[in-house]
Specification:
This protein has about 400 residues and is of the alpha/beta class. It has helices at about 5-15, 30-40, 50-60, 75-80, 85-90, 105-110, 115-120, 155-160, 185-190, 200-215, 230-235, 240-260, 315-325, 335-340, 350-355, 390, and strands at about 65-70, 90-95, 125-130, 135, 140, 170-180, 195-200, 220-225, 265-270, 275, 285, 300, 305-310, 330-335, 360-365, 370-375, 380-385, 395-399. It folds into two domains: about 5-20 and about 280-385, Gyrase A, domain 2, CATH 3.30.1360.180; about 30-275 and about 390-399, 3-Layer(aba) Sandwich (Alkaline Phosphatase, subunit A), CATH 3.40.720. Strands 2-18-9-1-8-6-7 form a seven-stranded mixed sheet. It has a four-stranded antiparallel sheet with strand order 12-13-15-14. A three-stranded antiparallel sheet has the order 3-4-5, with no helix packed on it. Helix 2 runs parallel beside helix 6 and helix 10 runs parallel beside helix 12 (about 240-260). The radius of gyration is 21 Å and the shape is globular.
Length: about 400
C-alpha cells in the first residue's frame, strides 16, 4: 500500500507540478524591485541579488522615476488586454510577489526592501501578542470593534518596526495615494515621513504627477498607489467585466502619463498580487463556539486564504487532529517553524516580531478555498494571499 504524503510533502508536490508557486529569492521578485528602486534613487548600501541588478539595468538611469503600483493587477489580468495595449506591450518581465500575497505584506516589503520574514507585517489581521489584541494593521484598528489601535496605547512603531526606505532617497520622494488614506498611519509610515499627496481620481493623479515632473528642478521619485482594480476584483471576482474595464482605464491613463512626461521620467508599473475567484464550494468557516476555536488563545488571524493560529499550551495534538479532519482535503496545515524552514515568507530566520505574529500554525490552500472566522454577511468573490500563479505572479512594465 502506498504511503500517504504528509502536509509538507503535499505542498512540495504542488510546487513541483506548478499548481502553486514556491517563493524564492533566486527568482526576480518584489523585494528585488524595492531594492532596485532604492538603489536608483540614491541609497547606496543595499545588497542586490541578480534579480535586483537585472531590474536596475532594465530600468536604467533617469532624472525622474515613477512607480505606479496597481493593487490587484496580477500578470494574468495584463494578459487579458489587447496585445498592442500599453501595459501588455511594455511588459518587461514577471515578478514573484511576496508571500502571503497580500497588500500589507507587499507594500511593507516595497517600503522596507525586506521580506515578510524580516519586516514582521505578513497579514491583514494580526494578533499582537504583547497587547492581546487582534488588529487590522493596514487601517491600524482593532479588528472587531474597529477602534484605533492608539486607544490601547499601541504606537505605529510598535506594529511597523522596520524603517521605510524613502526617507533615505536622494531623489526627492512624493507618494500619491487616494485622498481618503493620504494622512493614514500606514501612508505616513510607508512614505518614510516624506511628502504624501491625496488624489480623487486616477486621471487627477496623472495630471498632478505630470505637472510635478514638468516643473522639477532636481531629481524626483514619485510613487502612485491605485486600489480600484483590487476593490472591484474582491467584490465581483477578477474575471468580471467591471474589473477588465478598470484595467483598460488604467492602461489608458498610464499611457497618457507616459505621453505627458515626454521622456523626462522612467515609468515602472507593477502590482502587489493578483486574485482568484472563490465559489461557494470553496468557503469554509471556523466559528467562535466550535471545537477548533476552543483550542486557540485568539480568533484565527492572517488571511482567509492563509489563516494563522495561536494555540493554547498543550493543545497542538488536538488541534492538528481536528483541523485535518475538517479541512485537510483543501488545506495543508504547517507548523510556523516548518513554514520558516521552507522559507516561504522569505530567506533566513524570522525576526522575533514575525515569529510572534505567525503564531503556531498556518494553513495553506492547495486550490481555490478560503477559511474565515465566523461567516461574513456578504462573501467576497475575489481573494488573494495564496500561492497560486494568479496570486503570486505580477508584472513589471517599463516605459
Amino acid at each position: 500500500m502506498a504511503r500517504t504524503m504528509n502536509d509538507t510533502e503535499r505542498l512540495l508536490a504542488s510546487f513541483e507540478t506548478g499548481v502553486l508557486v514556491r517563493p524564492s529569492p533566486d527568482v526576480a521578485n518584489a523585494v528585488d524591485l524595492s531594492r532596485a528602486i532604492a538603489t536608483l534613487a540614491g541609497v547606496g548600501d543595499l545588497d542586490l541579488t541578480q534579480g535586483a541588478e537585472r531590474i536596475v539595468s532594465q530600468v536604467g538611469q533617469s532624472d525622474h522615476y515613477v512607480l505606479a503600483l496597481i493593487d490587484g493587477l496580477g500578470a494574468e489580468l495584463v494578459e487579458h488586454l489587447a496585445e498592442d495595449s500599453f501595459l501588455r506591450s511594455q511588459m518587461c518581465m514577471t515578478l514573484q510577489a511576496v508571500f502571503p500575497s497580500t497588500t500589507v505584506a507587499a507594500l511593507t516589503s516595497l517600503a522596507t526592501g525586506l521580506w515578510p520574514s524580516a519586516h514582521g507585517v505578513p497579514t491583514w489581521w494580526t494578533y499582537l501578542v504583547d497587547y492581546n489584541i487582534s488588529a487590522t494593521v493596514l487601517p491600524f484598528i482593532e479588528r472587531f470593534s474597529k477602534r484605533p489601535l492608539g486607544k490601547w496605547g499601541i504606537r505605529p512603531s510598535d506594529v511597523f518596526t522596520r524603517a521605510a526606505l524613502p526617507a533615505r532617497f536622494r531623489y526627492e520622494p512624493c507618494s500619491f495615494v487616494p485622498a481618503t488614506i493620504a494622512s493614514s498611519v500606514y501612508s505616513v509610515y510607508a512614505s518614510g515621513g516624506t511628502e504624501v499627496r491625496g488624489y480623487r481620481t486616477l486621471s487627477e493623479a496623472v495630471d498632478v504627477l505630470t505637472a510635478r515632473i514638468g516643473a522639477a528642478r532636481a531629481p524626483t521619485y514619485s510613487y502612485l498607489y491605485y486600489p480600484l482594480v483590487d476593490a472591484l476584483a474582491h467584490d465581483y471576482g477578477p474575471e468580471d467585466s467591471s474589473v477588465l474595464a478598470e484595467v483598460v482605464n488604467v492602461d489608458r491613463e498610464l499611457s497618457r502619463l507616459v505621453d505627458g512626461l515626454k521622456g523626462r521620467a522612467r515609468l515602472m508599473v507593477t502590482a502587489d498580487h493578483g486574485l482568484v475567484t472563490i465559489g461557494e464550494r470553496g468557503r469554509h468557516v471556523v466559528r467562535a463556539d466550535d471545537d477548533i476555536a476552543e483550542l486557540l488563545v485568539a480568533p484565527p488571524s492572517g488571511e482567509p486564504r492563509v489563516p494563522v493560529f495561536h494555540l493554547q499550551d498543550g493543545k497542538a495534538e488536538a488541534f492538528e487532529r481536528r483541523f485535518r479532519a475538517r479541512f485537510g482535503e483543501w488545506f495543508v496545515l504547517l507548523m510556523a517553524s516548518e513554514v520558516e524552514r521552507l522559507e516561504l515568507l522569505g530567506p533566513g530566520p524570522y525576526a522575533d516580531v514575525t515569529r510572534q505574529r505567525v503564531g503556531d500554525y498556518l494553513a495553506l490552500p492547495l486550490g481555490e478555498d478560503v477559511l474565515v472566522y465566523e461567516p461574513p454577511k456578504d462573501w467576497m468573490l475575489g481573494y488573494h494571499a495564496g500561492l497560486t500563479p494568479a496570486e503570486m505572479l505580477v508584472p513589471l512594465i517599463l516605459a
